[in-house]
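dude i think i finally got it to work??
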Amino acid sequence: MNSSSSRHGVYGTLPLALATVTSGARIFGPFLPGAEDLADLEDGALSQLVMLAPAGVLERRYALAQGLRVVEPSGQFTVMALKDKGGSRLRKELEAFGCPVIETSKAHHRICGVTRPASLVGISEAVAAGAPRRSDTLGLFTQPGIFSWDRPDPGTALLLDHLPAFSGKGADLGAGLGVLALAVLKSPKVTGLTLIDLDYRAVRAAQRNVPDGRAEILWADVRVAELKDLDFVVMNPPFHDGGAEDRSLGQTFIRKAAEALRKGGTCWLVANRHLPYEAVLAPLFAKVTLQAETGAFKVYEARK
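look at this
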C-alpha cells in the first residue's frame, strides 16, 4: 500500500457500477470482517472517502459524521445510497453538517459529492446519537444499527421461553447482542459456546454483554465459518440481506447448523411463520419438532 492510497478509504460494499475504488484503499464497515472502524481514526486521517451510507437514520447520520470527521479539510467525501434506503435524505443531512453538496442520480442511487469544509456543524451530536451505549430497556450494551438494538425481539423472546438446559459445546449463529448466549450459559453443563455475527458492532457489544470464559465471540460470516462436532446450535437466523428479504440466508444458516452438529446434536431456532424452513430442515435432520408457535413465529427443535 503506498502512502497515497493509505489515505483513501472505502466504507461498505459499493456498487461497482457507481464507484471506482482506489487500489490499496483502506476498507471500513461493520459488515466486512477484518475491515477498520472509522471511529478508531484521528480527525483528518483520510484525504478521500467513498461511502455506501446505511439505511437507518441514526446509524447513517453517525456514519456520515464519522466520515466527515476523518476526511481532512478540502478532502473529498462521496456518499451514495438507494433512493428508498436513505438516498433521498443524503443531501439535506450533509448540508445540515455544513457541507456544500453536488448531487447526482444513477441506477436508483443518489450520489452526493462533498469537498470537506474547514468547519462542520453538529458532528459530535450525531456521533453521540449513534455511538455504543448501555440500554436501560435491554440491560445490555448496544448500538444503533444492530438487529433489535433498542427493544427486545419477540422471536428471540419466544425461543428463550422454550430453550432447554444445554450441555457440552455449542454455537449461537447470528448471535447479535448475546441475548440467547446469556440464557444458554446459565447451564453449568455448557463447556463452550461460540458466538458468531457478521456485524462488528454486535460483536463488540456481545464482548461486553457476555463476560463468560466459556464464550468465544467471532466477527465472521456464518456462511463460511468452520464449525464441527457441536452438541447444540441456537439461532434466530436473519432473512434480510442489505435490507431486502432473502429467504436463502436463513436456509443457509440451517445447513451450516446441520454441518456443524455431531450425530444426535440439536438445533433450536425461531423463524417467522411465513418462512419456508420445514422443507430445508426435514432432509438434514433425523427429527424435526415444532415446539411452539404464535401468529408470527415458530420454534423448532431439530435433532441430527
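The longest strand covers residues 71-82.
im so relieved honestly
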